[in-house]
């Protein structure tokens, strides 16, 4: 992977209109395919640099902006990112982007809970950024499958601007005495350690 090419691609993706693309979510409702805000990207990269994870799972790929910020903080000789996207066309084009950039990313196509049911890896980091009202169910599915556990870092976007939609997810951390904090980015980024 060539760091400069990844950075050029990040700059291009950041120019995409943040309100320009809608999609129909798994409940048949209208949703926005908004990428992470600029303030969040470098936090994701910094957390990867600090944690030095081997296996990362992202839920909600879209065009891969957050994926590339994750990739920027990884040791490419040993780290891999799996990222889940249910829109087949978007998943295909983003996989092509990742292949062109030669970054260690696999886009797993399908609904997150269905994809999780077929996973057999343990993840050091999980970044939640798909449907907000599904964060809790996806977290429970990952725990049940044994894909996360002691030592996994949990990251989740939009926990402030869309707090009501992910309240059961947010409440789970204090209820289970899990160390966590919320970084007050434009959207709110939860950082927790299991
Ligand atoms: C907010 S966007 C992700 C933005 C991306 N993380 C970024 O910063 O560039 C959410 C994406 O998750 C996908 N998505 C929504 N619900 C999903 C689900 N249940 N399973 C898999 N993907 C889902 C949408 O198609 C959309 O592309």
CATH class: Alpha Beta
Give the mean pLDDT: 92
Strand order of the largest sheet: 5-4-3-6-7-9-8
- Measured distance between first and last alpha carbons: 31 Å
**CATH homolog superfamily:** Vaccinia Virus protein VP39
Uncertain spans: none
Listing every helix as H and every strand as E from the N terminus to the C terminus, the arrangement reads: HEEHEHEHEHEHEHEE
CATH topology: Rossmann fold
Strand content: 15-25%
Structural class estimated from helices and strands: alpha/beta
Q: Which oligomeric form is depicted?
A: single chain
Instruction: Characterize the overall form.
Output: globular
| Major beta sheet summary | 7 strands, mixed
Let me know the number of strands. Answer: 9
Which architecture per CATH? 3-Layer(aba) Sandwich
The percent of residues in helical segments reads 25-40%
Radius of gyration: 15 Å
How many domains is the backbone divided into?
1
With helices defined by DSSP (H or I, 4 residues minimum), what is the helix count?
Answer: 7
The unique ligands bound to this protein are: S-adenosylmethionine
Write the SSE topology:
Elements: H1 3-14, E1 22-24, E2 30-32, H2 38-51, E3 55-59, H3 65-71, E4 80-85, H4 88-101, E5 105-109, H5 112-117, E6 125-128, H6 135-145, E7 153-157, H7 167-175, E8 179-183, E9 189-193
Parallel strand pairs: 3-4, 3-6, 4-5, 6-7
Antiparallel strand pairs: 1-2, 7-9, 8-9
Helix pairs in contact: 2-3, 6-7
